[in-house]
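Cross-posting from the modeling subforum.

Setting up a comparison between two proteins and wanted a second pair of eyes on the formatting. Protein 1 (sequence, then structure tokens):
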Amino acid sequence: MRRLAVATVMAGVAAWSVGAASADPTKPASSEDGKYADADGNPTYRIDPDGKVDWYTFSGYRRYHSECHVCHGPDGMGSTYAPPLVDSLKHLTYGDFIATVAQGKKDVGNGNEKVMPALGENRNVMCYLDDIYVYLKARSDGALGRIRPENHDAKPQTAKDNETACMGP
């Protein structure tokens, strides 16, 4: 099961490698059915001047707060035993983020042990990993505050179909 989940996510990473060049690196370079990509083809967010967010950023907010905030704190701000992801995403690549979540991570040093469990078999995380990433990226870039987005796009049919396929019957 774990290999399947990791393979599914890595296939998703490959599918995101179709970005277009953008003159402004703070704006999405491309979009397909409500899902946005940056100039490097990595998933990204879209936030309108009125604060309306794309579906995936909103979904990421919900998924982050259902699965990740217990360790990494509300809004990605960190806790006493897990780092603030708003800081981590300033230097982690999309691929590094995917690998860390799927495979976990263990840092031991100076009598301090930090362990990120492997979540590659957790469908509540892996099926929404791009969503979680774009939410945290928006937080890391300072584009989204410590709030639940009040207004968001409707859930695209593609998101519904992917959710059904990933979560199973």
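Protein 2 (same layout):
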Amino acid sequence: MTTPKIGKLIIFSAPSGSGKSTIVGHLLQKNFNLEFSVSATSRAPRGAEVNGRDYYFLSADEFRAKIENQEFLEWEEVYADTYYGTLRSEVDRITQQGKNIVFDVDVVGGANIKKMYGNRALALFIQPPSIDELEQRLKNRGTDSPDKIAMRLAKASEELTWAPRFDVVLVNDDLDKAKQEAEKILTNFLSQS
């Protein structure tokens, strides 16, 4: 009897506006047997985001209760009362089916997941070409106020210092090129036993 194949973990982290969600979305449409890990958050939905598809939207109190119950693989209070985390049940559900799970998480969460899963996980850091370019992308996105953009840029400067903790740093200065490079990196990682 053969042992069922357990899926691998692919972690994408980056400052907000670096293009990681776009790259992850691209990879999910390719033949990598990937399923997206839906993170939990205590922030309000943005735009057309849907509960259970984009995030599991929880109140700050609900999130803290799940922390107390140790239901998270990793979690972070990114801003006051704004939590993000990965539910253990989500990772187990996907990998036990033999699927590879892909994460779109903050840098602290990404580094923590990598540390827990070691060689079973690949951690990619998507880096913007510059802070100026990042600011322009955030403005063009049109989802945040100028104050929120300033807060995201301050956070991005700190997040960029985490890049060396990741297996691969992918500079997204050309989105099509970054998507192709991400495909090559995944093909190589998933071909390893």
